[in-house]
Amino acid sequence: MNVLKFNYFNVYYQNVRGLRSKTQEFYKNLCNSNFDVIILTETWLNDGILDTELFDHKYSVYRRDREVGGSSKKKDGGGVLVAVLKSLHSKRIFSFESSGEDIWITFDIKHNKLTQKYLLCAVYLPPPVTITSVDTFVDNCNRVFELCDLHKLIVGDFNLGCIDWNLAGRSTDSLPGMAEVLVDFHCLNNLQQLNSVVNSSNRVLDLVFTDIINCKVINSSTTLSKIDPLHPPLVITLPFQQTSHLQNNPNNKYLNFRKADYEKINEALDAVDWASLFDNCVDVNQMVGSFEGTLDQIIERSVPQFFKKQTKYPPWYTRNLIRRLNEKEKIRTKVRKYNNPLDVLELRILKKRCDSLLTDFYNNYIRNVENKVKNDPKYFWTYIKMKKNAHNCLPATMTDHNGSSSDGTSICNMFGNFFAASVSQGVNTSLGGASDCGTLCADTFSNIKIRHNELKQKLESLDVSKGAGPDGIPPLFIKRCSKTLMTPLLLLFPLWCR
Q1: What is this structure's pTM?
Q2: Could you give all domains of the chain from N- to C-terminal order, each with its CATH number?
Q3: Phi and psi at residue 488, in whole multiples of 5°?
Q4: What is the distance between the alpha carbons of residues 196 and 353, in angstroms, rounded to a whole number?
């Protein structure tokens, strides 16, 4: 069953004037926001700052940091960044980028069984802006538009405060050459410049060009970074119809091996006549299948199960904070719809309360991580791994020469096919001694003998703090059941080695 509803697609834009010293502030503000796309200019980032220091797992992050040092003559600073919700299936188009500071992204909005594709460009023209830099950007845009016929959205800091966009298009006689080029560009391509939010100098430096109908630009009441008076943050809203589908059950089943009844498990394993069970099998593969099937049945009867609900929130979020955030979003929806002054006041109060709670919980979480470095270093490294290996390090869409995919299973199959082809191409079949080597290896493995004491020692020396392997069985289970697992393993190991 599908339910149609009218919704808004929100794009946040801000010239942040550097993020290196504001990563924690930005991250906490991001957790208290709900934007579909985030565009930042003048990020001042470099490869020493991870995406996960700024964004959580919900976003695919695309950066074009300014190249400094080496052969580059540019000064430190600049840089553009675009973060897109993973549900939008975004992709960076490197071939569309110019020699300046711009980044081009395509993303999809799906509604009513239809998919609308959008082309987004984030750009920064550093001062002093010259006619050469404007020409370079405009020429590149015209080239891109010839190659790509999608809905367009160009957002960035153009540093051209000399243009009165209320009069732009009527006459360009009084404009300097570089401003005239930009005005002509937007007229010839049927683009609108929608930003009318002036800065502290009563000028507009940040521009929003688009051909999307009913697109609106307003001053953002929510900020992700400290506001520069010359660059007020913006929210760009795109109305669209969204199709909501009934969701699958998001609960995942887990086995709690730490609370398993190992006395009952060992009794069940000891009662199995493994020799008779394996006698009915035609080969070692069937024997292994019987062994795993018997083990799974015993585990299912004796290991308690629990259901862990997937969450989109960071680990320091409490139920109280989540409840407050949901309340704030409900009030924000009412403000957007009715603009009632009382709702606006309530939203302001809730926002301050959420900001305070989020800051307190985040600081307590970081303090707890730091305090456990000495006594529980594993907790600290879990936090580091969460930052380094977060899901947003993986792109929402992966592409090879045969096509692209946004489905996890399909992506795994793409990797499998690629490596299978690489291995098959790399096999050298011209070696005359290959068959002799195979015979020698088979003879060597068939002579391997597994001794009872050696196997027992290896099983009992397993590190129970480690996680489970591909079969889902952790070392804790194997170690606690080592005595009763000895019989089937001693029967199977010699056959595996043949």
Answers
A1: 0.63
A2: 2-245 (3.60.10.10), 251-309+434-496 (no CATH), 319-391 (no CATH)
A3: -65, -35
A4: 31
